[in-house]
Structure formats: C-alpha cells, structure tokens
Amino acid sequence: MKILQVRVKPNARASLLTPPSRDGEPWLVQVAAPPVDGKANDELVRLLASHFGCNRSAVKVKTGAGARLKLVEIDGDG
C-alpha cells in the first residue's frame, strides 16, 4: 500500500502526472476535467491507476475529495 500526497490542477489543457522533484513535495496532477460532480477526482484515479499499473478500484482518495491537496491510497503491488 502506498500513500501519496497529490496537488490537483483541474481544467488543464491535457492530463499529466508529475512526480515530486524533492522528498516531502506532493505529486502534481493536471487533469482536463472540471472540478464538478467528482469528474476531476475520477480522472485523478484513472491517471494514478494507469501510472502504477493497478485497477482503478485500488486507488482511493482518502482525504481532500473537495480540495486540491489530497491524500491518495494505492493498494496492491503498483
């Protein structure tokens, strides 16, 4: 299981996942989806699952569902 701190930027031109450059910094995740009705969170989950090679069901937003700074839990080997 991994716990990631991520900073989400919705309404981006393209969806992009950027790992932190230093320890303690959050991952930067740009998503094309708007922050409406959970669409940005859904795209965040899809991007992280694809990057770590796991199912979308293995990725859960633990805290910050309505905020840009989130803690995300990834179950499995990914």
Summarize the structure.
The protein has 78 residues and is α+β, with helices and mostly antiparallel strands. It has one helix at 39-52; strands at residues 2-9, 16-18, 27-30, 59-63, 69-74. The protein has a five-stranded mixed beta sheet with strand order 2-3-1-5-4, covered by helices on one side.
Stretches with pLDDT under 50, minimum 5 residues: none
What CATH first level would be assigned?
Alpha Beta
Q: Quaternary arrangement of the chains shown?
A: single chain
In DSSP terms (H or I, runs of 4 or more residues), the helix count works out at 1
Domain tally: 1
Tally of DSSP β-strands:
5
Mean pLDDT: 95
End-to-end Cα distance, whole Å, is: 8 Å
Structural class: alpha+beta
Q: Label the CATH architecture.
A: 2-Layer Sandwich
Instruction: Kindly report the name of the CATH homologous superfamily.
Output: YggU-like
Radius of gyration: 11 Å
Determine the CATH topology: Conserved Hypothetical Protein Mth637, Chain: A
Query: What is the element string, with H for helices and E for strands?
Result: EEEHEE
* Silhouette: globular
- Beta-strand fraction estimate: 25-35%
Helix content range: 10-25%
Largest sheet: 5 strands, mixed
Write the layout of secondary structure elements.
Layout: E1 2-9, E2 16-18, E3 27-30, H1 39-52, E4 59-63, E5 69-74
Parallel strand pairs: 1-3
Antiparallel strand pairs: 1-5, 2-3, 4-5
Describe the structure.
The chain has one domain: Conserved Hypothetical Protein Mth637, Chain: A (2-Layer Sandwich), CATH 3.30.1200.10. The chain is an alpha+beta fold. The protein has a 5-stranded mixed sheet with strand order 2-3-1-5-4, with helices on one face. The protein contains 1 helix and 5 strands; from the N terminus they run βββαββ. The mean pLDDT is 95. Belongs to the UPF0235 family.
